[in-house]
Amino acid sequence: MGLFDGLFGSKKTDDRLGQLEERVNAIEELIEEEHQDTKELQDKILDILSEPGTTAEIAEKLGKSRSWTSYILNQLEKKGNVREKGMCGREILYEKVERLR
């Protein structure tokens, strides 16, 4: 029995609300999958950054686009996991931030 079953008393309304609930559940699953994929990609980038690298170098190693890699690097930078080390030509050189345990 779904969350909205019988709430409004109309079979047609109940059916439509049931369909809506199924769609919401599917969206929630997609969001969870995307979150997991992003987390795995962040971990891979941190492994790659055992040596400093540019967005292009990291993207090539991952087999991902530069724009997607840049997005993930920005997330990691906001979390304090990576930082800009300098420039390599016209590209930013990133390095992993080592944390004390």
Descriptive notes:
The protein has helices spanning 11-48, 55-62, 66-79; strands spanning 53-54, 82-88, 91-96. It has 101 residues and is α+β, with helices and mostly antiparallel strands. It has a three-stranded antiparallel β-sheet. It starts with 10 loop residues before the first helix and ends in a 5-residue tail after the last strand. The relative contact order is 0.11.
CATH architecture: Orthogonal Bundle
Helix content: 55-70%
Radius of gyration: 21 Å
Number of strands: 3
Number of helices: 3
Main beta-sheet strand count, sense and barrel state = 3 strands, antiparallel
Instruction: Name the CATH superfamily classification.
Output: Winged helix-like DNA-binding domain superfamily/Winged helix DNA-binding domain
Number of domains: 1
Task: Give the ordered list of helices and strands.
Answer: HEHHEE
Instruction: Quote the CATH topology.
Output: Arc Repressor Mutant, subunit A
The residue-averaged pLDDT reads 87
Oligomer: single chain
The level 1 CATH classification is Mainly Alpha
What proportion of the residues form beta strands (DSSP E)? Answer: 5-15%
Structural class: alpha+beta
Widest beta sheet: strand line-up: 1-3-2
Label the overall shape.
elongated
Task: Produce the secondary structure layout.
Blueprint: H1 11-48, E1 53-54, H2 55-62, H3 66-79, E2 82-88, E3 91-96
Antiparallel strand pairs: 1-3, 2-3
What labels would you give this structure?
101 residues, alpha+beta, Arc Repressor Mutant, subunit A
